[in-house]
Structure formats: C-alpha cells, structure tokens
C-alpha cells in the first residue's frame, strides 16, 4: 500500500474511532433512529443539487444507502443507546473485517495470505476476550445489533466493489439520499411524534456538534477515503485496517467519557494491534494458493 493511502487509512480510522464516543454525546438528547435520519439528510442535502450523480445504476445507490444508513448506522446508534459502551461498539463493528475477507474469497476469488489468516485468528481472540470481559453495561440485543451492523458494513463493501464506482464523494452523497425517509418512518412508527418534538424543545449545542461531526467528518470524508481504498486495493487487504478503529474509539472514550481501561482490556487491545500488523505486513515468504 502506498504511503499516502496508508496515511489516509490511519486518518479515516482515527475519525471513525472518535465518532463512537462523540455519537454517544448526542444520543443523550436525540432518539437514535432520528439522529441517524438527521445525519444522512445533511449528508445528502443540499449536496445532491451541486454534485453530479455518479454514472452507475440507481439500484447500487439505493442498496448502499439503505445498508449504510438503516442496516448499519441506525443499528450502531441503537446498540449504543441500549447501553453498549462506545469503545465496545467500536470493537464489535470490526467483525466486518472478517466478513469482508470472506466476501473477498467467495465473490472476488481473492486469497488470504498466511499473515492475514493468522491476523484473523488473533483478532478474533482479542475481540472475544474484550466482549466476554465487558462489565455487562450492554444488553444482549444491543450486542446482537452491533454484530448485524458489522455484517451490513461488509455487504456495503461488496457493493462498492461490484458497482465499480469511481466518483466516491458523489457516491456517498447520492447514496445518503435513500436513508432518511425509511429512518424517519421507523422513528414515527416506533416512538410517534415525541422524538421530533424533543429535538425542538431540548436543543443542545453538544448534540449539534456531534451531528455535524458525524455528517462531515465521519460520513463525507471518511467514507470517501475508505471507498477510495476499496477502489484501489483488494477488500481483503483494506479490511484489516479497520481494526485500528476500536483503538481510537477506546482512547476517545477515555478522554471524553471517562472510560477506564482495565488490564484485561489493555492486553486484548494489544492482541488486536498485533493482529493488524500480522495481517497487513508483507512477509518475505508467504504461502500463496495456486490458481
């Protein structure tokens, strides 16, 4: 991977990691489904009037928008709102790396190197250990929602590869257009008018900052950068980089929310970092499958 792309990957994962505790700040004042709807409304509007639609089938845009907004970020916000700590949420979503590697093998005939295979094993150990040792703040449903969102992210990665889109910023903007209406409808069906009236009655500047960060940093910039990486490199090579996200997520939670990292969690984070190194380092001797 070129140095400029590696630096882009680190910046994207840092912003994504910080986005988890920052999202927690706004969930104290805004319903999780409505927050997600507002995020993707601002991600799409008014930009669709100024950014030319990418020359791909509308089905790709709709599919990515629904998966991106409804099946991924709405579930993440719901899981955090149910009590899953932001740092743990950032870890759970990293199961997308393993799902994405599997899609790469099944759909794109990619081959996992020995290092990637070892990295997957180490990462699984680290993630499972952190989840098992969590203080029980999250509900079983909340953890399940995070795992479903991780799977959804992997499906979104496949859509990027299959659509062969090149105009990444335009793709994110136009895909975001398909998420708000289903999310607003779900908000109304589940909670009625209360979430909408609460936003008006209990406006908070912290929630506004959080929302703008989610839109312009975590959505516009990060998904543009991530999709550029997916465009330039095999999904099985890009996916392990997302394991940096929980590291930044936990550090951000410590600084912003007062989260404390125990010895067990610290060791597990070290295992995940080792998994990342093992998975992306180009080893001098690798076992390659012959085609």
What does the model show?
- The chain is built from 14 helices and no strands.
- It is mostly helical.
- The chain is globular.
Describe the structure in brief.
This protein has helices at 3-27, 32-44, 58-81, 86-92, 95-108, 114-132, 140-163, 168-176, 180-191, 194-201, 205-232, 235-238, 245-257, 263-280. The chain is mainly α and 291 residues long.
Give the topology.
Elements (H helix, E strand, L loop, with lengths): L2 H25 L4 H13 L13 H24 L4 H7 L2 H14 L5 H19 L7 H24 L4 H9 L3 H12 L2 H8 L3 H28 L2 H4 L6 H13 L5 H18 L11
Keywords:
single chain, 291 residues, mainly alpha, disordered C terminus
Number of helices: 14
The N- to C-terminal Cα distance equals 23 Å
Estimated radius of gyration: 19 Å
> Which spans have pLDDT < 50 for at least 5 consecutive residues?
283-291
